[in-house]
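can u do me a favor
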């Protein structure tokens, strides 16, 4: 007969032992206003997530064994003394002084039920706490290191040095960032609490590195040197903006067991009234004019990125240097003339204040082939089209055979066809051929590759400016794992992947992956993955 056991007795002793082992990294002085806070929602939430992952992967037997193994390790009293329903984690009081020297004053905090119960809990882990002296206790870890403990606010705080725990300790129930109690894992860093002198030193150090890059390197052309210098200047501008105007950066991970979704999030908040705050607000105010391309695609990517004036100027310098550098390398006078003409025609688009681009992979069809679609917002699209016509007119007769101008029409917009003479094997496998269709509007260019490319261009032109079937962020990528399975090159692996996908993703939308970047009050990067990816991975495993 199968024995019954209380699943609680041994749930998390190993977690406490690990955290106390890490405690010797703490030094310096007691925390007041945490600069960095890293939390786990609770021990309960962690163990529930582990069970969910095991069960979703088809490892129900291992999920059942988990509590039993921990119970054997800790005994009948289990975790009595540790509150398994409240957040635990680590906090950093301040940046070490002087900057970059010494170890940061890190403090670990664990929620407890009662002080003595926690002391007894440590005893069950073969860790003995000393008697209390001046509000502190000490424990000698199996590693040979000493850790000091202080109880406050129904928490135990741990650090290597007594001085680290002096003064007022923050109450985690009040001091933790909002993300801490809502996510399984949450890391929050307050950029605005970095002292001004530290920021100045960081920028001064970066300026030293930028200065080193001003000299031309051996075997480097003038254009390459200017490009590298412009790139360093651009990076410096971005870093300085984040350091001087950033307020808070948060990174979180959570498992929504109700919706069966894995959530990864990163959020950057700017100081109110700064240029960075204004840029983030602008970034969240509009969507791509090609958002509808995201509808029902195997894969899609949409970007609408407005650039701040200062960043735009730096990027323009980088573009000029890069293009001129490539022109200088070209030895043919006629090719340099053509390149100059091409650059002058597309320069207004390259230097536009807004980057608006979208791409999608549609299919697979009955033949397991896809159609690739690309769209881009441009300036003077008709001038670009006329340039293409001029260049085609200057081609040799044999080369011109690959291009069919005005192959089709959508209203007053012409669709041109390009059929490269070389038969690309990979294009044939994925798209059923390498035929390209392209159309020019004065404000957009749309192109497609594949057997259904002409119809795809027509559909994209018709959908320009229409809304997507759902909300689309300024930057968004969507992926259907089941639909992209035929892209795997090895036929056997593709078939195995398709079978695993069919077995794992049994509900509509359960194979969905979405990555977004959105502005507004903050810059929010998120990754949403169906939790059934766990089942898919388990099905693929040997």
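np, heres the sequence
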């Amino acid at each position: 007969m199968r024995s019954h056991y209380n699943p609680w007795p041994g749930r998390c002793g190993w977690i406490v032992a690990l955290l106390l082992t890490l405690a010797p990294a703490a030094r310096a002085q007691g925390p007041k206003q945490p600069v960095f806070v890293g939390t786990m929602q609770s021990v309960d939430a962690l163990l529930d997530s582990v069970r969910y992952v095991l069960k979703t992967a088809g490892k129900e037997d291992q999920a059942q064994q988990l509590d039993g193994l921990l119970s054997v390790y800790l005994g009948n009293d289990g975790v009595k003394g540790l509150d398994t329903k409240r957040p635990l984690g680590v906090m950093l009081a301040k940046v070490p002084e002087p900057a970059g020297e010494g170890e940061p004053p890190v403090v670990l905090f664990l929620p407890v039920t009662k002080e003595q119960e926690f002391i007894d809990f440590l005893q069950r882990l073969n860790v003995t706490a000393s008697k209390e002296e001046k509000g502190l206790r000490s424990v000698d870890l199996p590693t040979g290191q000493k850790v000091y403990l202080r109880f406050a606010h129904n928490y135990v705080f741990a650090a290597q040095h007594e001085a680290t725990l002096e003064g007022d300790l923050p109450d985690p129930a009040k001091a933790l960032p909002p993300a801490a109690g809502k996510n399984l894992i949450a890391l929050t860093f307050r950029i605005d609490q970095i002292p001004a002198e530290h920021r100045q030193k960081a920028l001064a150090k970066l300026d030293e590195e930028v200065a080193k890059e001003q000299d031309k390197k051996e075997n480097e052309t003038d254009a390459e040197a200017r490009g590298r210098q412009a790139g360093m200047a651009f990076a410096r501008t971005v870093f300085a903006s984040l350091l001087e105007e950033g307020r808070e950066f948060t990174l979180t991970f959570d498992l929504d067991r109700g919706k069966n979704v894995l959530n990864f999030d990163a959020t950057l908040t700017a100081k109110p009234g700064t240029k960075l705050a204004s840029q983030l607000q602008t970034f969240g105010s509009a969507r791509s004019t090609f958002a509808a391309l995201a509808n029902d695609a195997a894969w899609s990517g949409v970007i609408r990125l407005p650039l701040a004036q200062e960043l735009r100027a730096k990027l323009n310098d980088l573009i000029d240097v890069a293009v001129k550098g490539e022109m200088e390398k070209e030895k043919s006078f006629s090719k340099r003339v053509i390149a100059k003409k091409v650059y002058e025609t597309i320069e207004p688009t390259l230097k536009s204040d807004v980057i608006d681009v979208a791409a999608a992979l549609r299919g697979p069809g009955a033949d397991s082939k896809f159609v690739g679609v690309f769209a881009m917002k441009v300036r003077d699209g008709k001038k670009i089209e006329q340039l293409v016509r001029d260049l085609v007119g200057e081609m040799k007769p044999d080369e011109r055979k690959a291009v069919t101008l005005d192959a089709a029409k959508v209203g007053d917009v012409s669709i041109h066809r390009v059929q490269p003479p070389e038969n690309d094997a990979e294009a044939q496998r994925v798209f059923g051929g390498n035929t390209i269709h392209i159309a020019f509007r004065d404000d957009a260019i749309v192109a497609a590759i594949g057997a259904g490319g002409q119809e795809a261009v027509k559909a994209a032109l018709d959908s320009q400016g229409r809304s997507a079937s759902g909300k689309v962020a300024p930057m968004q990528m969507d992926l259907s794992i089941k639909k992209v399975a035929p892209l795997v090159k090895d036929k056997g692996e593709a078939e195995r992947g398709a079978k695993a996908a069919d077995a794992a993703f049994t509900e509509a939308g359960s194979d969905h992956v979405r990555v977004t970047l959105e502005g507004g009050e903050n810059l929010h990067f998120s990754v949403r993955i169906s939790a059934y990816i766990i089942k898919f991975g388990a099905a693929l495993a040997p």
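The longest strand covers residues 246-256. hope that helps!!
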